[in-house]
Write a structure and sequence with these properties.
single chain; 344 residues; alpha/beta; eight-stranded mixed beta sheet; three-stranded antiparallel beta sheet; 26% helix; globular; binds iron/sulfur cluster
Length: 344
Amino acid sequence: MGNNDLCLREAILSEETEDGKIRCLTCMRRCIIPEGKLGFCKTRKNIDGKLFTLTYGDISSLSANPIEKKPFFHFYVGSKALTVGSYSCNFLCYWCQNWEISNRAPDEFKNYVSPEQFMRLVKAYKCQGTSISFNEPTLMLEYSLDVFKLAKSGGYYNTYVTNGYMTPEALSLLVENGLDAMNVDVKGCKEAVKKYCGADVDYVWSNIREAKKRGIHVEVTTLVIPRVNDDVDCLRSIARRIRDEDENTPWHVTRFHPEYKMTDRESTPIKTLEQARQIGVEEGLKYVYIGNVPGHSGENTWCPNCGELLIERYIFSIAKYRITEDKKCPKCGTEIPIIGESNL
Ligand code: SF4
Ligand code: SF4
């Protein structure tokens, strides 16, 4: 079998429409796809009345990364996750840092890595888990499920770094088959997400709520972009929505640099990120982090009760880890929500 055949698999989530087309139920675009055509993301095709994914195991990038790079700051601190991505996306973000793969439709040059090979690499690279990332992982739903099942049977964790736009059906399958944690990108407030990503952010919030309800560890990231989502009201409303779900949910406010179609503005000023962090704290979030600013104290974890330094980070490495074995602040004994055992 050639790589093209190996990457072509029948999609798990679809239904026939009344007029004989196929509706894809993988993400909230819920594309209706006529015979012979592709969906919005160009990774799913109606072939003879059945929906197929074209990118099962078609890997564009693979690397063993610190879990802090996703970023996850409260999940298996200091561990490594074998991270893979494929091609294309269901969003159209103007600032995409991975546009070379997310803006590229899958082509005939396939780089197939089977779930079994993938798991052998997890072991060889001494990783503690998996991460589907780089482009939107939901488009790799079928592959993720197969990888996750194998990973769980071997005692590894599974993570998604996602725009959070999967359908409830897709989220359910991920949860049932071994997803442990998601970092969800909340890209801004309603109008900005519609304008720049062509998406409805309310679906993202619903998935955050549902994932947390079902016991998935969730961290939220917002790339703070001048004149897109940096106004105080927008940042405050994001912070409030996270707090209303759970004040312990980590929120990463990260620095934008000009990229892809958004080169008409400056990098995010550090003081804007500091203000965003302050807003998060004022709204009651206990763990708000500044990202993409190496050496900033906002990369560290501080005890929300007594202010003690708990985890000191430098970019993606851990310089100091001071949380006790029973996951408490060593000074005041406050419980610190950290999932999993770290290697530290
Ligand atoms: S995954 Fe989303 S964008 Fe792609 S075909 Fe399915 S519904 Fe459309
Ligand atoms: S969702 Fe992520 S991968 Fe997709 S276009 Fe936006 S930034 Fe790029």
